[in-house]
Predict the structure.
Amino acid sequence: MDLVRDLEALAEGARLSIASASDDRALEELRVRFLGKKGEISAVLRGMGQLAAEERPRVGEVANRVRDEVESLLVLARQRIEDARLEQELRGSRIDVTLPGRRLLPRGHRHPVTRTTEEIVAIFARLGYEVASGPEIELDWYNFEALNIPADHPARDMQDTFYVDGAAIGRPEGEGAVLLRTHTSPIQIRAMKRAGSPPIRVVAPGRVYRSDYDQTHTPMFHQVEGICVGPAITFADLKGTLAAFARAFFGAGTRTRVRPSYFPFVEPGAEVDVSCSICGGSGSRSGARCGTCKGSGWLEVLGSGMVHPKVLENVGFDPAAVTGFAFGMGVERMAMLKYGIADLRLFYENDLRFLEQF
C-alpha cells in the first residue's frame, strides 16, 4: 500500500476538477468530495493504521500538504468565479444611475416632539450649555432625596409615579426605592456629582413618567431641564437666560414675566410666562377674547428658580461659595403652544394626518 502515491494522484485529480468548475455549486460538491468527513483524503488516511510507525510521519506530512493545497485551490476558484460573474454584469446592459426615479417616494416627517426637543436644545447650546443624559429607571435618592424632597414631603404626591422591583433589574439591596423618573432633574444631580466642582452648565432632555392621563397629561412625556452653577450666579442671570430663550423659540417680539412659585429644589422659585403669540399679548383677537391665553395675554411655559442650598450640599458644593439657577419645561407643552395644538394625546396617536403637518 503506497498512500503517498495515492495522495499525489488525488491532488492531481483535485487540480483538474477544481480548474474546470464553473459555479459555486460545483465548487461545494468538490469541497465535500475531497475535504469532507467521508471525502477522498479521509478515505486515504484511514489506511494509515496499517503502516509501520516510521512511515506515518511522512504520510501525514504529505496528507497535510495535499489538504492545504486543495483548500487554497477552492479559495482561488471561488474568487475566479466571482470575478467572472462581476465581469459579466459589467459587460451587460448599462443602467444610467443619473436618471431620476420613476416615482418619488413620500418623505417622512420628524415628530413634533422631536422637532421641539431639538430646537430647545439647540437654543441652549448656543448659550453655552452642554447636553447631559441619565437613566430613566432611577434611584429614589436621585429623583427625590437629593432634590430636597424627603419621603414625607407633600411634593411627592404631585409627582406620583411608577415604582420598579429593584431586585428584578439587579439593583443591590439597601440602595433605596427604584422608580421611573418623574422629571429629568436627577440628570442635573448626576451631572454635578460627575463634574465634582463648579462651574457647570447643562441641559437635560428626556422622557419622564407620572401616573396622569387626560387632555393635557400623559403617563409618559418629555422634559428639558437645565442648571447653571458657579460663583456669583444671580436671579438676574436666570431672567436674562430665559428671556433670551423665549425670544429665540417663540419669536423676537416675545415678552416674559416671572411670578413667585414654590418648588422644593429651588429658593426662591418662579413660574415664567411669555406673551401670547396668537394675540400678541393683548388678550383679544379680532375683537373677541383670545382663546389661547383666555384673555390674559400671557402663557405659562416653565418653572425655575435659584438652586436650593440643600441641593448644592447634597452634591458636595459649598452654598457659601457658589450659587446657581435651574429651570424645566415640558416639551409637549412647548410644542402645543408653538404649533397651536389643543390636545396632548394627538402626539401619541400616530395619525399621519396630524404628523404630516410638521
Remarks:
- The domain at 112-355 is CATH 3.30.930.10 (BirA Bifunctional Protein; domain 2).
- The mean pLDDT is 85.
- The longest helix spans residues 56-91.
